[in-house]
Amino acid sequence: MMKIKTLLMVGLMLLTASCGQQTRQQIAEIIGRARMKKIEKDINSRIRDMVVPKLKYPDSYQPISTDMSIVTSDMVIYDSQAFLALRDLNNTIKDFNENYANDTTSQEARQELDAIQAMSDVLLDKINTFSSRPVEFEAIDAYHQFYAEDRPGHQVKKGYHFVIHKNNSITLLCDHDEFQQVKAFTRQLLNEPPFIAH
């Protein structure tokens, strides 16, 4: 009996010691999982209340799934303003490539490149600010998929990313295709600047 008590005490001491050594990322994940557990019962109804009124044919709405993931404070893509800036820069670069192709010498092309450079610098500063902040739980990303008609009798699959903030408010970030494009662009931006060097 004494041996079991001693083992339990040692086990509790080790558990307490390991809890004290958790990283900020681990703490954010623990908080995030608890938050997901708390909102999982009503998340689908909250999303449905936001989605259905915007559909062309509301009665055709058929939910498929809602996948949730933890958002930490260093994930710049979930910041609404940063997301819009990333999307705009991505679109500006695409437009430049379509309109000017390999032309980097004309005055118009140079002006566009300067604008792209300035946008990139601002974004990279913002990303650096995000990545230097201490990692904390920020929100939950709820990726919701559903079927709905875009015209009578023609059903399509749709998916949207919603952000459930710490204060329990919910915002629509974007559709899944746009999310994937901005995510890929953000990776590209961090690995290699998407503009032509002067």
Question: Which helices and strands, and how do they pair?
Answer:
Layout: H1 2-20, H2 24-39, H3 43-51, E1 62-72, H4 80-100, H5 107-132, E2 137-151, E3 154-165, E4 170-175, H6 176-191
Antiparallel strand pairs: 1-2, 2-3, 3-4
Helix pairs in contact: 4-5, 4-6
Quick summary of this structure?
The protein has helices at residues 2-20, 24-39, 43-51, 80-100, 107-132, 176-191; strands at residues 62-72, 137-151, 154-165, 170-175. With 198 residues, the protein is α+β, with helices and mostly antiparallel strands. Helix 4 (80-100) packs antiparallel against helix 5.
Characterization of this structure:
- The chain is an alpha+beta fold.
- The chain has one domain.
- Helix content is 54%, strand content 22%.
- The chain contains six helices and four strands.
- The protein has helices spanning 2-20, 24-39, 43-51, 80-100, 107-132, 176-191; strands at residues 62-72, 137-151, 154-165, 170-175.
- Strand 3 (154-165) and strand 4 form a beta hairpin.
- Helix 4 (80-100) runs antiparallel to helix 5 and helix 4 (80-100) crosses helix 6.
- The model is unreliable at 194-198 (pLDDT under 50).
